[in-house]
Amino acid sequence: MPSFDEVLKEAGEFGRFQKRVFFLLCQTGVTFSFLFASVVFLGQAPGSYWCRIPGAAEISERCGWTLEEEQNFTVLPLRLGNGSSTGECERLDIVWDASVSCASPLAHYGNRTTGSLPLTACHENWVYKQPHSSIVSEYNLVCGNAWMLDLSQAILNLGFLIGAFTLGYAADRYGRILIYLLSCLGVGICGIIVAFSSNFTVFLIFRFLQGVFGKGTWMTCYVIVTEIVGSDQRIVGIVIQMFFTLGIMILPGIAYLVPTWQGLQLAISLPNFLFLFYYWLVPESPRWLLTRKKGEKALKIMHNIAKHNGKYLSPHYSEITISNEEVSNPSFFDLVRTPQMRRNTLILMYAWFTSALIYQGLVMRLGITGGNLYLDFFISGAVELPAALLILLTIDRIGRRLPFAISNIVAGIACLITAFLPEDIPWLKTTVATLGRLGITMAFEIVYLVNTELYPTTLRNFGVSLCSSLCDLGGIIAPFLLFRLAAVWLELPLIIFSILAVLCGILVLLLPETKGISLPETVEDVEQFS
Hints:
Number of helices: 23
Order of helices and strands: HHHEHHHEEEHHHHHHHHHHHHHHHHH
CATH class of the largest domain: Mainly Alpha
Helix content: 55-70%
GO molecular function: monoamine transmembrane transporter activity; neurotransmitter transmembrane transporter activity; quaternary ammonium group transmembrane transporter activity
Transmembrane segments: 21-42, 154-171, 178-198, 204-225, 237-258, 264-282, 347-368, 374-395, 402-421, 427-450, 462-486, 492-511
Mean pLDDT: 82
Shape: elongated
CATH topology of the largest domain: Growth Hormone, Chain: A
InterPro entries: MFS_dom (IPR020846), MFS_sugar_transport-like (IPR005828), MFS_trans_sf (IPR036259), Orgcat_transp/SVOP (IPR004749), Sugar_transporter_CS (IPR005829)
GO cellular component, one term: nuclear outer membrane
Strand order of the largest sheet: 1-4
Structural class: mainly alpha
Number of strands: 4
Keywords: Cell membrane, Glycoprotein, Ion transport, Membrane, Mitochondrion, Nucleus, Transmembrane, Transmembrane helix, Transport
Radius of gyration: 27 Å
């Protein structure tokens, strides 16, 4: 009986059928990037706001004050009496009642100056000039509550982490396309609930669930694409990530056009429902079907692929070699039971962690520049495009391992140089830091491809999901590592990033080269890699 790769070569390794499926699934990269980076715009600083004195709302309504007039009566005297106070996180410790004068409300307190009036911290009653522009103004995530905005992103990353384990496992057990479709449905439904959350707790719960399902869509679509193309075309996995970058560049445009956070949340969530039409357009992975002893279904799909590609399968292709490896529910021990699998798993987990930590660290470091948020965000996405182009130019010519190692080492050296460049030449410092961003972006994109190619079909989705979960852990740690170490010395995070990246570059040289090699079907195939 012919092997799957032999049948695939006969049916077409990257014909019209695969190109159509590939283009359809690439759209998932755009919507996933929306979810991944949306907090930048959902949590925008609310602009002008102040703490309202108890009773001020009633007085304002009785006196017919505008918001500006109320602000002048409450915040301006506070600033005059206490120059260090902005009126955002503290207020005068007074209460206005019906006896307060509309013309001069503070005259109620006699000859006392505003500087002698007591102050108190503000815990509620903030007034925003744009009350529904972001979740910050919607849920009062200011002053003492500001840390809750960071919590919302940490919760999303925790959802990614849980999704990697649970849905990665489910996709290996119940099928790629089933879990993909359920995940798309979950992202859409949870996104709508997030947009209409009545309080911050509900917002967090369904943002977490959106993260779980979002990770399911991203990882599963990536695996489907790599399993239906030939070994020479698996570089399409890199192109999927170019669509992620495209989403990063589109997002600020959507945020600019949609003025409220609820509208933005709906705009980035509703497209996921369109992916449900893929039920009729994208087949189950025939590789996965073979591992589940469903050879007839796999062969039927291969005949359909051949038909759409203008090819014809020979009559002797009545059966396909089915994996002899006993199918069981995958577990972490399956990934570390044998020597080569163990080495691959540990190195890939470290590579995922390092890539995410440094990538997000450098983004946050370069992003604290002020200026136009929408334009800066667009440019930060555009910087990533050359990384994918460099990969496309090198990975099929010289292999995976060397570009993987060099990109990490370049990122590490760039971080080290940036740390010791003087502040009086900011253009050079920014240029070298951008080179580090380019290097770590390349490493981040290559690890997806290499991870997929180093695991057998029976463990591929679970293996990719498990290893990539370290990416989410790195994303959770990155802001804490960056800001805590920067408090000691501004450039200290770059030193840590440098050490982590160079070490990663050395370790990935221990991985086997997978250029031009068929995807492994069994653990034994992986152990035979040299």
